[in-house]
Amino acid sequence: MDWIPIQQQKAGNVMIRKLTTFVLVYIGLTMIMISSAYALRCGGRIVSVGDTPIQVIDKCGQPEHVETRQETRHTKDYRFYKNYRSKGWQKPPLMATETIQIEEWTYNFGPTRFMRHLIFISGRLERIEVGDKGYYR
Questions:
Q1: What's the distance, Cα to Cα, between the start and end of the chain in Å?
Q2: What is the pTM (predicted TM-score) of this model?
Q3: How many domains are there within the chain?
Q4: Could you tell me if 119 and 129 are in contact, meaning their C-beta atoms sit under 8 angstroms apart?
Q5: Which of 116, 113, 128 is nearest to 48 (CA)?
Q6: In a domain, 89, yes or no
Q7: CA 84 to CA 137: how far, in whole Å?
Q8: What share of the chain is helix, strand, coil (3-state, %, to 5)?
Q9: Residue 51 sits in which domain range?
Q10: How do the pLDDT tens digits run along the chain, 137 residues long?
């Protein structure tokens, strides 16, 4: 059995501790960056994906700018689709068309923070995007 001198054992333990600390800090910073993409902090309150416009106004106040538009989306509706493989043919799926309301709210938190764009689709917060640096109002 080979004996490792105590000084080498201590050096190995220090390296392991440094590596473990680095990995934990890296994981922590990654989690913070990921969570900030799905949430917005207004004062001490957090706005997250899925909130309604009323909840966002309650937490952050009125936005700096609101842009509203409607979009028409075409999708294939397979709910009433029947597969007739035994007869060698298929009915095509029904085409569904829906008009959705999209609102984009912009919050300007001043020149020291980035602006945030909140995209609401059909009355629910779908995305939070980071914009350019804010400005004085």
A1: 74
A2: 0.62
A3: 1
A4: yes
A5: 128
A6: yes
A7: 63
A8: 30, 40, 25
A9: 38-133
A10: 566 666 666 666 777 888 888 888 877 766 655 545 568 888 889 999 999 999 999 999 999 999 999 999 888 776 655 555 555 555 666 778 889 999 999 999 999 989 999 999 999 999 999 999 988 87
